[in-house]
Specification:
single chain, 2 domains, 6 helices, GIY-YIG endonuclease, elongated, 179 residues, alpha+beta, four-stranded antiparallel sheet
Length: 179
């Protein structure tokens, strides 16, 4: 655990597997406040973020970007301090020499709920404007469930055993985000 005066270098931190041998995310980060860096399979930095619960944030990122979440480095603090966390985030990005895609042009795919409208079939897209409100909601939920199934399948192929539950209310809007 770091104090808010110590800014650990990213390089000084140990790589942790994103998904352990039991198929779980690093539970030592559950309910921990701090900053984390996510790396791909080749240990290339993809995203640097901070959170009041690192574990939940890692879970969200895994659902949104499963192909980019293989390794993580993290440091925790006792109390929330946005200024400190933003400072560490800036230092880690500078230490990397390049802004990771997740902190740059691809930021929204790392942070925003997953839009599922792209998965509508041509027939669904064509009929959508002509449907009444209830039928539109039903169709959006149906499409969101298809995308959800695809995500869950990808995670199962990676060996993930951690429970993944999506917010059912957001599916009505054609969005997926964890509950």
């Amino acid at each position: 655990m770091s104090s808010t005066t110590d800014i650990p270098s990213l390089d000084s931190l140990e790589f942790l597997p994103y998904i352990d041998d039991a198929g779980e995310l690093p539970d030592t980060l559950q309910s921990k406040i701090g900053i984390y860096a996510i790396f791909d399979r080749d240990r290339v930095l993809q995203f640097v973020g901070y959170s009041r619960d690192i574990y939940l944030s890692l879970k969200q990122h895994l659902v949104r970007q499963p192909e980019h979440c293989y390794w993580v480095k993290a440091t925790t603090i006792d109390r929330p301090n946005r200024t400190f966390l933003e400072s560490v985030q800036s230092n880690w990005i500078a230490e990397n020499a390049n802004v990771p895609l997740g902190n740059g042009e691809a930021n929204s795919v790392w942070l925003d709920p997953i839009g599922t409208n792209y998965a509508m079939t041509t027939a669904e897209s064509a009929s959508f404007p002509d449907l009444d409100g209830l039928a539109q909601i039903k169709l959006l939920k149906q499409v969101a469930r298809r995308v959800e199934d695809t995500i869950i399948t990808k995670l199962q192929q990676r060996g993930v055993k951690t429970e993944i539950r999506f917010n059912p209310k957001l599916k009505e809007q054609g969005l997926l985000d964890l509950k």
